[in-house]
Amino acid sequence: MTTPTILDQLDVTDIDFAFQDTPELHQLLADLRERKPYAIVPFAGVRAVLLLTHDLVSAAFKDEQTFPAQAVYSMTTEPVLGRTLQCMTGDEHRVNRAIVSPPFRRSLVTGCVEPLLEPIAHELIDRFADAGSVDLIAEFTTRYPVLVITRLLGLPVQDESTVLRWAHDLFYFPLDPPAAQRASQEFADYVVPIIAARRSDPGDDLISKLVTESVDGTTLSDDQVLAFLRLLFPAGADTTMLALGNTLSALLTHPDQLAAVAADPEEQAQWAIWEGLRFEPPVGLLPRACPTAVHWQGLDIPALTPVIFAINAAHRDPVKYPEPHRFDITRRVTTMLSFGQGPHSCLGSWLALAELRTGLTALVQRLPGLRLADNAHDDAVITSQVGTALRGPSALRVEWT
Questions:
Q1: Burial class (CB in 10 A: 0-12, 13-18, 19+), 70
Q2: Number of H helices, E strands in the chain
Q3: Non-local CB neighbours of 381 within 8 Å, separated by 6+ positions
Q4: For residue 8, with 0-12 CB atoms within 10 Å meaning exposed, 13-18 middle and 19 or more buried, which class applies?
């Protein structure tokens, strides 16, 4: 006779949270949270614990011992991306993170990186500014973060479409593993000679910094640099793309708040970005695992149970955020879970925030009277990119004066 566990009773039976789109996701999460602070849901064909409150998700992020990132990412991303920071723990993680962190510190992003962002944003806007209408997803949000990453790395990009494909295929490996493996190999073939060149003749680019930094006498090997670039390249590009698309979608469907940003972008753009990250985080669900059986926060979780951090549910927890389903750039809240917490919090958060703020500011300054095109409201609906985990609009057709 088996012992009953919390996994015995599913709270949702008709949605696999790993792969299926859920148009009314926020209402579903709110309904589940009203019943209890977690739910048992299908995830990639197995039963998982979905954490639904801000307190639980925040506590889980900080509890690396109970929910080690290594347990999931060593099985999922390592075969494609290599041994990244996500797959490391202990001293290995501490040393490697310390080596790669300096270029992403707030002071360096402000002083060295931000001056590069505005020219890139305007370079892209120049391509369509005279057209009067455009799909912002296809022509701006998809391209802008990739160009930023390639310029920071000092990659001599000749074929923009190939670079865009690498970033996409590496990030969406669960949907098409063979494409991800091909992209991984092609990216390695392209980058490895550049790594060697920067070791012998370093410059001011990010790859040069990665190959010359050391901590406790340790430097990164070529494989370690390559693994970090495989993670940085798609993750930095695609999450920023989704975040900017989500914020633009929210602003375009709340014209009064878009007008407020356009009237004073230097002050209001940053708050629009923060509220966009709360309202619709690009990574809505983050899967981890519980390797051993534990009693945690009142929950008896069996060994090897997937545990899903529902960031999007936490961000709309009414205990933390009054009127959580209202998009409001005057909320002035910056304590977000969008970049994670604990030892595996996002290394590039300051870079992402600078990119998002600069991109939004350039758009509202260059495109006066920016608005959704006629009959384009359906395009602004947030759709799932992978299951319920990654979310962003598939198109944003806009017009301007």
A1: buried
A2: 17, 11
A3: 23, 249, 393
A4: exposed
Distance CA(260)–CA(225), nearest Å, equals 43
Q: Is 361 left (phi over 0), alpha (psi -120 to 50) or beta?
A: alpha
Q: Is the pLDDT of residue 222 over 60?
A: yes
Tell me how far apart the alpha carbons of residues 40 and 300 are, in angstroms, rounded to a whole number: 13
3-state secondary structure labels for all residues of 160-205: HHHHHHHHHHHHCCCCCHHHHHHHHHHHHHHHHHHHHHHHHCCCCC
276: number of CA atoms within 13 Å, CB side?
35
Task: Give residues with Cβ within 8 angstroms of 37, minimum separation 6.
Answer: 51, 52, 53, 55, 56
**Structural contact between residues 270 and 277, judged by C-beta atoms closer than 8 angstroms:** no
Q: Report the DSSP beta bridge partners of residue 295.
A: 300
Query: pLDDT tens digit string along 58-105?
Result: 999 999 999 998 887 777 777 777 787 776 788 887 887 887 887 777
Q: Of 311, 317, 249, 305, nearest to 285 (Cα)? A: 311
> What amino acid occupies position 279?
F
How buried is 11 (Cβ within 10 angstroms: 0-12 exposed, 13-18 middle, 19+ buried)?
middle
pLDDT digits 0-9 by tens, 243-267: 999 999 999 999 999 999 999 999 9
Among 357, 291, 377, which Cα is nearest to 89's?
291
- Tell me which H or E stretch contains 301: strand 299-301
Separation CA 257–CA 247 (nearest Å):
11
Tokens of 356: 């998002």
d(CA 219, CA 99): 7
**What is the distance between the terminal CA atoms of the chain, rounded to a whole angstrom?**
71
- What is the DSSP track for 230-250? HHHHHHHHHHHHHHHHHHHHH
